[in-house]
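re: ur question from yesterday

yeah so i grabbed the chain u mentioned. its 451 aa long if i counted rite. heres the sequnce exactly as i have it in my notes:
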Amino acid sequence: MSDEFDAVVERVGERVTPDADERERLATVADQVMDRARAALEEIPVDAEVVQVGSTARGTWIAGDRDIDVFVCFPPSLDRDQLESYGLDVGHSVLPDGHEEFAEHPYVVGEIEGFSVDLVPCYAVDTASDIKSAVDRTPFHTRYLESRLTDDLAAAVRVAKQFLKGIGAYGSDLRTRGFSGYLVELLVLEYGDVRAFIEAASDWTPPVEFDPEDHGDKTFDDPLVVIDPTDPERNVAAALSAANVARVQHYARELLADPREELFVAEEPEPLTDAEAREVIDDRGTTPIAVRFDAPDLVDDQLYPQLEKSKTGLKGELDRRGFDVLRAAAFADETVALLLECEVVERPAVERHEGPPVHVRQHATGFFEAYESDPDAYGPFIDGDRYVVEREREFRTVSGLLESDALFDVALGAHVESALEDGYEVLVGDEVAALVPEFGVDLARYCSPKP
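ran it thru and got these structure tokens back, copy pasting raw so excuse formatting
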């Protein structure tokens, strides 16, 4: 196993290591971007520093990844409006055909000679603990790692990143909630090589905690805690989901038991066809329900937390009403589909409603009097030591609930709720196959789930 593991790591390493030509082309474009940024700063009445950051600055990018991140570091005395204005001026000067995107503040994204370039303004604070904007930490990360990453460690980082990409656990965006590049770099620094990282991950018992610079006791409620060596108040792994920690453990064990390159290759399933979707629905004998509406105009990092909140809220409401959701998912593209697969789709006309024990006199009397004259209620009667009534159920079907105003009593994301108010449709059973043209791949993943 040892020899085969090393052979797999070596082959993957060769595949993901940029060759000399790619390194030279990237360095040329990065220098060009930085020169343009410095020239643009000459037209702005403040001093600022231009720095390259991220994996391409640290030599840990994977062959074929063509992202260059350049930060313009402005004085902390500059107010936020000026930072944004000057930053966009520099960005549009460097990338005249670029477009604006927004994280904590706007920045410019564009392309030069086939390389994707992010031109981001930040504050040149003295320490990462003094940040005024979340991106202010990034130059500190680059300086910290540049002095510690050897060529061998950088090679190990690339292989570790490719493993995480292959199993779908790479990327700290709020859709993926996986491992960021910086987190991978710190973990490889901690363990020393790919094998040690994989062996340790296969045996993790969360919460797993690391403090590279011995900052001292900090409390973080996360499955993996890596205290930022440049900022003791931050857990680098804060965005990482428990599911992705478990996913890494599962596939680390697989890689150790049966080393193979397939685990380093992300596979996208073939999209489900209409006929296949209907066949799966029939075979499972459950009733899938989809709430479909136009996607809110939000970036993914704003949209997906709201979809998760809305999905969780809907599932909880259906479970409370006895419709027993087997599984739930959220898909997003031009439209959004909140998919809930129900084990029960229709309930009886009445439901049991328990009151307080009879000996709790005041509350028990109030319960009894509330229902004793209700012509639609069965009871009140005594079951055990408490009053019970069987009353008319508010919603007998899932679709009846979801098509009513009760949908808006669920804990939904704010923009999701606004989008639903503009209109939505409820798809029941075979009607869910209507999602196939837009969400065929998502449905294929749902119908053939993997760790």
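noticed a couple things. The chain has four domains: 18-145, 148-267, 274-346+396-447, 350-392. also Residues 20-41 form the longest helix (22 residues).
anyway ttyl
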